[in-house]
Amino acid sequence: MQRTNISCLAASAAMFCLAVSSSAAGGDSIVPAAQFAGTTLAQAPNLPPQQGPATQFLPLRAAPASTEWSGQPGASGHPEMTVEAIQVAAANFKTCLEGLWPHAARRGISRGSFDTHAKGLTPELKIMDLIDAQPEFTKSVWDYLDILVNDDRIAKGRETLNTHRVIFDEVEKAYGIDRHVIAAIWGIESNFSTAIGERSVLRSTATLACVGRRKNYFRDEFLAALEILHRGDLRPEQLMGSWAGAVGPTQFMPTPFQRFAIDFDGDGRRDVVDSIPDLVASTANNLKQDGWASGQTWGYEVVVPRNFNFLLADRSRQMTLHEWERLGIRRASGAAFPRPNERAYLLIPAGSQGPGFLMLQNFRVIMKYNPAEAYALAIGHLADRIRGGGALVQPWPRHERVLTLAERYELQQLLAQRGFKVGEHDGRFGPITRAALRDFQAASGLVPDGFASSSVLARLRGQ
Q1: Is the pTM higher than 0.90?
Q2: Average pLDDT, the chain
Q3: Residue 65, class by beta-carbon neighbours within 10 Å (0-12 exposed, 13-18 middle, 19+ buried)?
């Protein structure tokens, strides 16, 4: 889904803080991870909040076991997620929506259109259970990839490209975006249109605009949804999606829709729901506007030497592929880098025990679509598999236990107590927490790979 950085979809230590999809978040947070289409998410554990504005969400799309709010506070502990705060905000819902009318008018929305679409809305408080309950944060990167990059999805991706070959030919010519990447986004976001979501985007964004901890962000999304309806790009029955408001097979939030959606079939409407030309071209336009480098890949799986200085594995540390080679890094396939002067950073999502990846410009572009390293890795790998590439060469440390949410909070707190800067204490391991963890490991004589294992937590507890 066209994301924003809502918070933590980037990868992290023992688990990738699988980012999401809504908008660029600041600090150490990422964005929620991509939809696990076809899996059951009803038992998802509660997780901490995501701070900062959003761009696009990778919201949970599976139907909840119950349609009623549990009456419980959000697990984030945010003051706007207490039972009393939710109840007060819900009671004030109509007043809140009416207060948005002047903002809608400034966007050119008529009073009649506003009343038609907003007057009868009621809050869906069940969303308050979902906003703090995102199971992607409890998955290891290898489990995440196992779920999203599988034989069925690879086969369906190839079938989709063949069925819509003419459209993909035209879009690839117009925008210069690798068709396999667009197919991968389609597959991971909605399992090729089989898991788009059945909630009213207008009701969801209205609820989140007036209730809960992300009101400022979702007010813009609600107003953008009203604009989409007022303009006539989508009909109300088409504006259905996730609890967070993402719509269509490639999951656009309303605000990114406004920026990137394209009327590629020329019917006067930007229909990213039912028009294959529009949804493929809109996704391509999104990637192009974000800086996609045509004719280049997203990154390479690499073998990292055991004696490597893992302090160099940082998103801010970019070097040419040739410079990484001089440090002993080699492609896992044994092939040469085709363009050794390209600049990349080293990602080691499972620490020194797992595979490494040198990430190029296009990987960063995918992360703009959804700011999570795990998500971007899944997109890149699925695209390669659809193209005919093989599985990853190196094994994952599947013996490692994923830390619980409580343990992740504890690890951040223990690092902070020892003077390491971890950013937001939110249980998510983004770049800041991982840097702090590497510094602690280096100071303790451990391999500074930023991998949050149970043994590292035990070492912190013992000091």
Answers
A1: no
A2: 85
A3: exposed
